[in-house]
Every structure is written in C-alpha cells, then in structure tokens.
C-alpha cells in the first residue's frame, strides 16, 4: 500500500462523512496528496524501513489538527467570527515536530469558540456532531489510549465547605464506586489532604488567564494589549440581551483575562506557589 493510497482513502472518507458530522474547518487535500506522492518517491529511492523508522517514524501518516493549533497557511481563527479570517503564519511547535517526523496534515478541525465550551460549537463553523450518534454532540476535543499501570485518579470527598453538600448522594456514591473499580486494573486509590483545596479553581483560572499564548475575543490584533475596555462592556451588555456576536463563555473568558491582568504580580506569584503545593500533594 502506498502513502498516496492511504492519504486518498482518508480524504475520500472525510469528504463522505463531513457533510453529516461537520468536523472540518478547512482542508488541504490537494497539498496532502502532493506530499504523499513525494513520500512514495522517497521510499522508492530508499526502501529500507529501518532507515525511515529511525529518521521519520511518522512518515506518510495523515494528520488532522484542531483549529486552535497553528498550521502554516491554514485557518487559525478558533471558531471566532471576528476577525473574519486569521491565517497561521507558521506551524505551531507541535505541528512542526509532526511534520519533521514525516506526518502529513490534511485538515484543521472544529473547536468551540476559543475552546471555551464543552461541545464543539461556534457561530462560524457550527456544531460538530457525534459520529456514533448524530443526535448527540462531540463532547470531548481529544482522546487516546492510556497505560492503566501508570494512571493516577483523583477525586474528593469533602473540602469542609458547602459545595460537597450540594452534590446528590447518588453522585458521591458513584464517585467512590468508580474509584474502587480502578483497583481491578491495579490502580489503588489514595486519600490526599490538600490544604488549599478551596483555592484550586481560582489558581487554575488565574494561571490560565495569564498565559501569553491565549487570545481573547476583544483583541484587535495578535497584540494582547490591543483592545478597548468599552468593547468588553458593550459585548457583555449585548450578550445579556441575546444580541452578542460571541459565545457567552468566550465573553466571560475575555472579561476575566482583562480583570486578571490588572492584578499585581504578587497575586500570580501566590497562585503559582499554591499550584506547586497542590502538585507536590499529587506526586
């Protein structure tokens, strides 16, 4: 089987299924086929499999990439309607590594707007449906295999706060039952007492909001400081009345990022210290 045949098989299947699933934002089928032909020529010139396994272990493997990860020359808008178009100027490091290993990107795929939702829906590409049941949505953005012998599972019973009391007893029972189920696969649940548990959510949010690579809907350009606070207020009001251009979660993210950036550096330093303490507990 040639690389061209493999890539063509993937393309044919995607062209058949995508009108039903709506998972592709932009394809590069023609370029992918040209790359596949070059791979076939390379293998024909040097048919030694050991050489290619060592130098390019993913040679000729078709690859799709989420729109939130830059693929040179492809859409990198992450589900936004504004700006109308944002094209990646270069590959993200992960994509560059895949290409270096011989993989062939064939399309970029749908995500929630700025990845700020639990289903792949945005107002630009629309809703991506579940391939197993099109009445449902594609709830997860990624999946894969895992070595159960190295798996760590964390759950909490009580943080001496009011939140656990809001959980239905059946849910708490199901969590404990799930944890004990892992023992069948050699994974022993452990109790961990986290001193700053109440701060974990705020710690996570604070650090994520300060990530320089994260864009928000109020940016006019790639410059994170290029936005107007009036844009923030206007979009919040529009969303309250159902007239907004963006998903409410993207508005919340953008608003939170702006507020978080106003906090002093000492606040971030404290949150990173809390993060490290929590990480030490979970080692």
Automatic annotation (TrEMBL):
Q: Which InterPro entries match?
A: Amidase_dom, AS_sf, FAAH2
Name a GO CC annotation attached to this entry.
Answer: endomembrane system
Report the Pfam families cross-referenced here.
Amidase
Tell me the superkingdom of the source.
Eukaryota
Report what the protein is called.
Answer: Amidase domain-containing protein
Q: What is the lineage of its organism?
A: Eukaryota, Metazoa, Ecdysozoa, Arthropoda, Hexapoda
